[in-house]
């Protein structure tokens, strides 16, 4: 058996090793910084850190072990980034369903996935701020327990079976910029704001307020990209559109030009 203990990159490596070695896999995330641990997907990046592709495994991990005390002791920024990843899950799954798109395994997003994704969003709105406050004080609580379950399990089921859309395409696109130091979930939060603006979604204000309260970036400046050139923005837009399946799951139509405009407005 392969046992992966660590953050997102370590777990992605453990998944690849188990896949090619054809061994059972146990993953133990030490942070709730993204929603990959439960999924049958390993995200591959180029050596320069830019997004390469998703490697689809034959099955989900055989065992996922999460110790609340370990995850709660991770740097707070990592858990907040996990909230960003989980925040987008419902809206991407909703978009995928509306666009008659496909989930991460090529099927239609089922009702269970949409329910899990919705529960994910509701949990964040109910518990996210309280959980951050408790973690800051170095203590666990029911809010922290629910947040960890949300970031790792609900969001994992929600994205894998519900499908990804524009928010993740943008997060992946931003990885071409070496100067972008955002964690995955932080870039997803920014991508979500752009997606909701494009869709003219009624939840936009609630999402913006949530991001502000927990400290997730919603603008290029907050991502540390306030000085980004027009050329780099166009390159990012091109990279976003290379995420073809995610883009096909986006219910609102968008051009590269419109995307650049929305990213600057966000
Ligand atoms: Zn993600």
TrEMBL record:
<dbReference type="GO" id="GO:0008654">
    <property type="term" value="P:phospholipid biosynthetic process"/>
</dbReference>
<dbReference type="GO" id="GO:0004022">
    <property type="term" value="F:alcohol dehydrogenase (NAD+) activity"/>
</dbReference>
<keyword id="KW-0444">Lipid biosynthesis</keyword>
<keyword id="KW-0520">NAD</keyword>
<keyword id="KW-0479">Metal-binding</keyword>
<keyword id="KW-1208">Phospholipid metabolism</keyword>
<dbReference type="InterPro" id="IPR016205">
    <property type="entry name" value="Glycerol_DH"/>
</dbReference>
<dbReference type="InterPro" id="IPR018211">
    <property type="entry name" value="ADH_Fe_CS"/>
</dbReference>
<keyword id="KW-0560">Oxidoreductase</keyword>
<protein>
    <submittedName>
        <fullName>Alcohol dehydrogenase, iron-dependent</fullName>
        <ecNumber>1.1.1.1</ecNumber>
    </submittedName>
</protein>
<keyword id="KW-0521">NADP</keyword>
<keyword id="KW-0443">Lipid metabolism</keyword>
<dbReference type="InterPro" id="IPR032837">
    <property type="entry name" value="G1PDH"/>
</dbReference>
<keyword id="KW-0963">Cytoplasm</keyword>
<dbReference type="GO" id="GO:0046872">
    <property type="term" value="F:metal ion binding"/>
</dbReference>
<dbReference type="Pfam" id="PF13685">
    <property type="entry name" value="Fe-ADH_2"/>
</dbReference>
<comment type="similarity">
    <text>Belongs to the iron-containing alcohol dehydrogenase family.</text>
</comment>
<keyword id="KW-0594">Phospholipid biosynthesis</keyword>
């Amino acid at each position: 058996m392969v046992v992966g203990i660590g953050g997102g990159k370590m777990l992605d490596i453990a998944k690849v090793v188990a896949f090619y070695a054809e061994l059972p896999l146990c993953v133990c995330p030490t942070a709730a910084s993204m929603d990959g641990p439960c999924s049958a997907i390993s995200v591959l990046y180029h050596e320069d850190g830019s997004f390469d592709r998703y490697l689809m495994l034959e099955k989900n991990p055989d065992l996922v072990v999460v110790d609340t005390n370990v995850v709660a002791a991770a740097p707070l920024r990592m858990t907040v980034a996990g909230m960003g990843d989980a925040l987008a899950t419902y809206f991407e799954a909703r978009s995928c369903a509306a666009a008659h798109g496909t989930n991460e395994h090529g099927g239609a997003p089922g009702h269970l996935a949409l329910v899990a994704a919705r529960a994910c969003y509701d949990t964040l709105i109910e518990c996210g701020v309280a959980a951050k406050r408790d973690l800051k004080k170095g203590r666990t609580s029911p809010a922290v327990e629910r947040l960890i379950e949300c970031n790792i399990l609900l969001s994992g089921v929600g994205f894998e079976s519900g499908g990804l859309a524009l928010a993740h395409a943008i997060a992946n696109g931003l990885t071409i910029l070496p100067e972008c130091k955002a964690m995955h979930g932080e870039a997803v939060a920014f991508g979500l704001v752009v997606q909701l603006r494009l869709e003219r979604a009624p939840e936009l204000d609630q999402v913006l307020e949530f991001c502000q309260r927990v400290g997730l970036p919603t603008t290029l400046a907050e991502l540390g990209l306030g000085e980004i050139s027009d050329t780099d923005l166009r390159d990012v837009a091109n990279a976003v559109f290379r995420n073809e399946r995610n883009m096909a799951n986006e219910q609102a139509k968008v051009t590269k030009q419109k995307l650049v405009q929305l990213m600057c407005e966000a």
